[in-house]
Automatic annotation (TrEMBL), chain A:
Organism expressing this protein natively: Flavobacterium celericrescens
UniProt membrane topology term: Multi-pass membrane protein
Main localization, broad class: membrane
InterPro entries: NADH_UbQ_OxRdtase_chain4L/K (IPR001133), NUOK/Mnh_C1-like (IPR039428)
Protein name: NADH-quinone oxidoreductase subunit K
TrEMBL record, chain B:
Transmembrane domains' residue ranges: 6-24, 31-54, 84-102, 114-132, 138-156, 177-193, 213-238, 250-271, 277-299, 306-324, 330-352, 373-392, 412-434, 454-476, 504-525, 605-624
Protein name in the entry: NADH-quinone oxidoreductase subunit L
Naturally occurring in which organism (per UniProt): Flavobacterium celericrescens
Classification of source organism: Bacteria, Pseudomonadati, Bacteroidota, Flavobacteriia, Flavobacteriales
Domain NADH-Ubiquinone oxidoreductase (complex I) chain 5 N-terminal: 65-115
Membrane topology: Multi-pass membrane protein
Record has Membrane as a keyword: yes
Gene: nuoL
Source domain of life: Bacteria
TrEMBL record, chain C:
Protein name: NADH-quinone oxidoreductase subunit M
Family as reported in the entry's similarity comment: Belongs to the complex I subunit 4 family.
Compartments where found: Endomembrane system; Membrane
NCBIfam families from the UniProt entry: NDH_I_M
Limits of the NADH:quinone oxidoreductase/Mrp antiporter transmembrane domain: 123-408
Length: 106, 625, 477
């Protein structure tokens, strides 16, 4: 029996994750709302995760999946910190539009 | 002569200088004068002994100085006929003037310094004369220039005097550069600076191979001589140098230092003999200087200025003789000139002393009565310089004219004109100072007095020498001087002019010329009793009063441009360079200011830059490469 | 014994001075400097008796850098200048009251250590380290104890620091390149290195930039006058008396032998630049109102002449240049000390506020006069020997160079005598001027005696330096 990977083909996985990554990147460049940008970053991250899993299966090597677990764990932590920052920004300036964040300049 | 006495001869004045410098302030004025005089007298006595004992040149090796490349320079001195002759009148007149100064400078608070400087001057003059190579001569050459600077500016509280001193030093330095270049050329060409060595080298290869360079060297040395001996175009310092005390003018700026150029050319006669072009230049420069200076002397009213221009003019005549190759004639005139010009300067000093510092002849007159000795000695010296027989000046000047007549008639005519002018302005000076009524203040008139014997004694001695000095080289064959100097000019054929009808005619003509000059002066200042006025002089007279505007011309074409260049450099070039250095720094800061704009705090922009750069990098890595 | 003892002595002396406290700092510094001078004389004695004083041990394994000090006549002469001037400079500091004396004297000793090291180092990197090390103390000396407002001072000193430091970086690049080529930075291996002419040209230019700024040659001199006038006298003396000579010495030791063909190729141009500097510096002095700036520009003029002697690539030029380095060091220190003495009395460097001093201070006037005369190269002074030799070497190259450079004796006399007239002569000044004190007199007397002694008897120095200069010349040819 063919595995899912063999049925779909590695090429499609690559295209899918590249598309996802581009969507994320485009979202980051295009949107000004920090939450949505945050989500775009998550999409990019997951595109990479998807690719890692796909290649891990392709190469019959589990270490890729181990990496994905790592990434997911780190991403979870990152979201926790990131959202906390966003909340504090919101409390300070009343919105989370990144165009208002020019005070970061030194 | 043993070495010790030679060393004493050399260093006695230096010891005198050191004593006066270090202990002068504690000594009484008379004592410092005596120390100064004694040290020079000592040198004079030893020179006299040398003079009578030495037949062959003796050399004195003190120590090595330095050697660079192939050139070795030592502290060597040579005492031959030429240097002994020069030493004789340098130390002799030096002694007289020291004696004179004891009285003359007695009222000055810094008298010990005066004697210190005078002694130092004599020391350097001895070094100059006795040095056996060009560089030792150069030590003396610069040293006498320094002493001249110190003594012209002796009354240093007056900035005008300091200006005059500075001018003298700098103009001399222009000549010194020429001298140095001459030294370089000779040193490079002959690998030695010893006079004897250079002479040998020139005898061997001079005329054949490198005579071009030797001519240039001779010309450079002549430039040096121009500076020191106040010839055109470097003579303007000498009249200004009269700012110094009168004994200084007599010693340095009339009798000794200014003849250093003539000494040097005489010493290097073998070099100048192979450079006929340079000799021609010397003759022309000499006669022009004689003429120019004499014409300026015609209208000067300051007693010392007249004498100064007369000195320049007489030096010009000596250079004429040098240019014509008649070295012994030039030497003869140097000696007689030293006698009568020193006498004249000291006489004028005596007058100035009596009038408490007045130097303007228009405020003198009638001093004949109250200053008998000064008057008589002054008269003798004036007759000598005017060229009346049998006084010393007649013989020496006549020899120069005679030589000029034989060589080049134009030079002879010009030199004769200069001589007539000399006779005129000297008698003008004499009449204005000693004859007619006294024109000064009543206060001065009351105090008119003959100077003390310390002043009159040197005057008398010098007057006697001015009267009889001609005896050393009478033109009737068997001249003692020519004979004495024979070894110095050994390499060339010796020509004493045979006295024929022409020569006697020329002598008579010269006397006649002098008498014409005296006659005009008599007519103007004795008969018409004219007193020159300063204001509203017209035409040529005005040009002469202003010394042909030469000082102004130098100011305009040399000094002002240098200051202009200085201002330009300081205000423009320096700023510009400074700016361009700062410019480099500014480039960095401009770049950083522009670069700072990238960091604008816009997160979107950062992200864009981030994504864009990564994409560009990836595209470069995977697609282009 | 080897020569590193002198360096150790200076370094330890610097530390000791600092820890001795303000009260004793000046005395201990003097003691150390005198001791180092005595040691140098002892080293000289050993050297003349044929002893080998060099010292070499491995400093860094990779890259291979040696702590290597070499001693020959030339470096000994420069060391003598350094340690000989040092006591005079320190003694001259006694006249001034400094704040925090321990710091300034220890910095002075530290700087002397660095400069002495520069003169002795025989390994490129070691030399470079000493070279840059010398900048640090003078930066602080000038910044903390200088004249004028702090803001002006900061500007002038920072400019000086960055300027010289920037120039030196090119030298570092040159050394890095040389290391790539030779695998070592030892001077012997650098001398032996075969380089193409293009390489030599670039190396020459890199060295030239560093040295032209340090010496300084025009148009790299703009730091000089400002730094001199802002630094305290003690710093100005160190700078003008010794530090300038580091650049000149390095030309002789490093630049010319390593890049010989380029040196020959560039000779006429660099001679032109140097001689232009002689005239330019002399002309600029005529418009200076500040005594220290005037002396700075006169120094520019003299140093240009020394550089001309070096770049003439003749043995006479080398000899004259080294002689003139020594004599200029002596005289310029004396002249800056004179300006400091006036400053201590009247609190001004402005020439127009001076005048009428001679009648009040005879001894001072005499010392000053002698220094002025030495500076204009009167025969029998040390400077005359050097200047004569340099001009003679220039004549050997081309008579035109000699004549143009020779105008320095006219212009020099002009500006120095003018300066003397304006500062010293004239009617007695209404302000009181006390004559020199014992300490001041001692410093000036030593300088004057040395100037005359070596003016009349330069032979020992000439004999000391000539063999090593001949070696360098052989290396070039």
């Amino acid at each position: 029996m063919q595995s899912i990977l063999e049925q779909v083909g590695i090429g499609n996985y690559i295209i899918l994750s590249a598309l996802l990554f581009c969507i994320g990147a485009f979202g980051i460049l295009y949107r000004r709302n920090a939450i949505i940008m945050f989500m775009s970053i998550e999409i990019m991250l997951n595109a990479v995760n998807l690719l890692l899993v796909a290649f891990s299966t392709y190469h019959q090597d589990a270490s890729g999946q181990v990496f994905v677990f790592f990434t997911m764990a780190v991403a979870a932590a990152e979201v926790a910190v990131g959202l906390a920052i966003l909340v504090s920004i919101y409390r300070n300036i009343g919105n989370i539009d990144i165009d208002n964040l020019k005070n970061l300049k030194g | 002569m043993n070495t010790t006495s030679l060393i004493v001869l050399l260093f006695a004045p230096l010891i005198g200088f050191l004593i006066n410098v270090f202990f002068g302030r504690k000594m009484s004025k008379n004592l410092s004068g005596v120390v100064g005089t004694a040290s020079v007298l000592l040198s004079f006595v030893i020179t006299l002994l040398l003079f009578f004992s030495v037949k062959q040149p003796i050399t004195l090796h003190l120590s090595e100085w330095f050697s660079i490349g192939k050139l070795a320079v030592n502290f060597d001195f040579v005492f031959d006929q030429l240097s002994i002759l020069w030493l004789l009148f340098v130390t002799g007149i030096g002694t007289l003037i020291h004696i004179y100064s004891i009285s003359y400078m007695h009222d000055d608070e810094n008298m010990y310094k005066f004697f210190a400087y005078l002694n130092l001057f004599i020391f350097f003059m001895i070094t100059l004369v006795a040095g056996s190579n060009l560089l030792i001569m150069f030590i003396g050459w610069e040293g006498v220039g320094l002493c001249s600077y110190l003594l012209i500016g002796f009354w240093y509280k007056n900035q005008d005097y300091n200006d005059a001193a500075k001018k003298a030093f700098i103009m001399n330095r222009i000549g010194d550069l020429g001298f140095l270049i001459g030294i370089f050329i000779l040193g490079f060409a002959t690998n030695t600076l010893e006079f004897s060595g250079i002479q040998q080298a020139i005898d061997v290869d001079g005329v054949v191979s490198t005579s071009g360079w030797y001519s240039i060297a001779a010309f450079c040395l002549f430039v040096g001589a121009c500076g020191k001996s106040a010839q055109l175009p470097l003579y303007t310092w000498l009249p200004d140098a009269m700012a110094g005390p009168t004994p200084v003018s007599a010693l340095i700026h009339a009798a000794t230092m200014v003849t250093a150029g003539i000494f040097m050319i005489t010493r290097m006669n073998f070099l100048f003999d192979i450079a006929p072009i340079v000799q021609n230049i010397i003759a022309v420069v000499g006669v022009t200087t004689a003429l120019v200076a004499a014409s300026i002397g015609l209208v000067q009213n300051d007693i010392k200025k007249v004498l100064a221009y007369s000195t320049v003019s007489q030096l010009g005549l000596m250079f004429l003789a040098l240019g014509l190759g008649a070295y012994q004639v030039a030497v003869f005139h140097v000696i007689t000139h030293a006698f009568f010009k020193a006498c004249l300067f000291l006489g004028s000093g005596s007058v100035i002393h009596a009038l408490h510092g007045e130097q303007d002849m228009r405020k003198m007159g009638g001093l004949r009565g109250s200053m008998k000795i000064t008057y008589i000695t002054f008269l003798i010296a004036t007759l000598a310089i005017a060229g009346l027989p049998p006084f010393a000046g007649f013989w020496s000047k006549d020899e120069i004219l005679l030589t000029a007549f034989h060589e080049n008639k134009v030079l002879w005519v010009l030199a004769t004109i200069a001589s007539i002018m000399t006779a005129f302005y000297m008698f003008r000076l004499l009449y204005l100072t000693f004859f007619n009524e006294f024109r000064g203040t009543e206060e001065q008139k009351k105090h008119l007095h003959e100077s003390p014997s310390l002043i009159t004694f040197p005057l008398i001695v010098l007057a006697v020498l001015s009267a009889l000095g001609g005896l050393i080289s009478l033109p009737f064959g068997n001249s003692w001087l020519n004979h004495y100097l024979m070894p110095i000019f050994a390499h060339k054929e010796h020509a004493e002019h045979h006295l024929g009808a022409t020569e006697y005619g020329l002598m008579a003509f010269a006397v006649l010329g002098a008498l014409i000059g005296i006659g005009i002066a008599y007519n103007l200042y004795m008969k018409k009793k004219e007193v020159p006025t300063s204001d509203e002089v017209q035409g040529l007279h005005k040009v002469l009063s202003n010394k042909y505007y030469i000082d102004e011309i130098y100011m305009a074409i040399i000094v002002t441009p240098i200051y202009g260049l200085a201002s330009f450099s300081k205000n423009f070039i320096e700023k510009y360079i400074s700016k361009s250095v700062f410019g480099l720094g500014n480039v960095v800061s401009v770049l950083s200011i522009q670069g700072k704009k990238v960091q604008n705090g816009n997160v979107g922009f950062y992200l864009f830059a981030f994504v864009f750069s990564i994409s560009a990098f990836l595209i470069y890595l995977f697609l282009i490469r | 014994m080897n020569i590193s003892i002198v360096l150790i002595l200076l370094l330890a002396g610097a530390a000791f001075t600092f820890f001795a406290g303000n009260k004793f700092a000046s005395k201990i510094a003097l003691l150390v400097s005198v001791a180092s001078f005595v040691f140098t004389l002892y080293a000289l004695n050993l050297y003349l008796n044929g002893a080998d004083l060099s010292c070499k041990s491995i400093w860094i394994q990779n890259p291979k850098i040696y702590f290597s000090l070499a001693v020959d006549g030339l470096s000994l002469a420069m060391l003598l200048l350094t340690t000989g001037l040092l006591p005079l400079i320190i003694l001259s500091g006694w006249v001034t009251k400094f704040e925090n004396e321990k710091a300034i004297y220890s910095l002075v000793l530290f700087m002397a250590f660095a400069m002495a090291g520069t003169f002795l180092a025989a390994d490129g990197l070691l030399y470079y380290v000493f070279w840059e090390l010398a900048l640090i103390p003078i930066y602080f000396i000038a910044l903390l104890w200088g004249n004028g407002s702090l803001e002006e001072r900061k500007n002038a000193i920072l400019k000086f620091f960055i300027y010289t430091f920037g120039g030196s970086l090119f030298m570092l690049v040159a050394f890095v390149y040389l290391y790539q080529k030779a695998g070592s930075l030892e001077i012997e291996s650098l001398y032996a290195l075969a380089l193409t002419e293009t390489e030599k040209t670039w190396l020459f230019l890199a060295f030239f930039l560093a040295y032209a700024i340090k010496i300084p040659l025009i148009p790299f001199h703009t730091w000089q006058a400002n730094t001199y006038s802002k630094a305290p006298a003690i710093g100005t003396m160190l700078l003008s008396g010794i530090m300038l000579k580091m650049g000149l010495y390095s030309v002789l030791r490093w630049q010319l032998p390593i890049t010989d063909t380029a040196a020959k190729e560039f000779m006429p141009y660099i001679l032109g630049v140097s001689i232009a500097g002689v005239i330019y510096g002399a002309v600029l002095t005529l418009r200076q109102k500040n005594l220290k700036k005037l002396l700075a520009y006169s120094s520019l003029s003299h140093v240009g002449l020394i550089a001309a002697g070096l770049y003439s690539l003749t043995i006479e030029g080398f000899q004259g240049a080294v002689l003139q380095m020594l004599s200029h060091g002596l005289v310029i220190v004396g002249l800056f000390f004179v300006s400091e003495i006036i400053f201590n009395r009247w609190n001004t460097y402005t020439i127009s506020e001076m005048g009428g001093i001679r009648s009040q201070a005879t001894k001072f006037a005499s010392f000053f006069m002698i220094l002025v005369l030495a500076s204009v190269a009167m025969p029998t002074t040390f400077n005359f020997v050097g200047e004569f030799t340099i001009l003679y070497s220039l004549y050997n190259v081309n008579i035109g160079f000699a004549i143009v450079a020779g105008t320095t004796i006219i212009l020099g006399a002009f500006y120095m005598l003018r300066m003397y007239q304006q500062t010293m002569l004239g009617e007695t000044n209404t302000k009181v001027f006390a004559d020199v004190t014992i300490v001041e007199g001692l410093v000036l007397l030593v300088i004057v005696v040395l100037v005359f002694f070596f003016g009349l008897y330069p032979k020992p120095i000439i004999e000391l330096i000539t063999p090593s200069l001949q070696n360098i010349l052989n290396q070039i040819n």
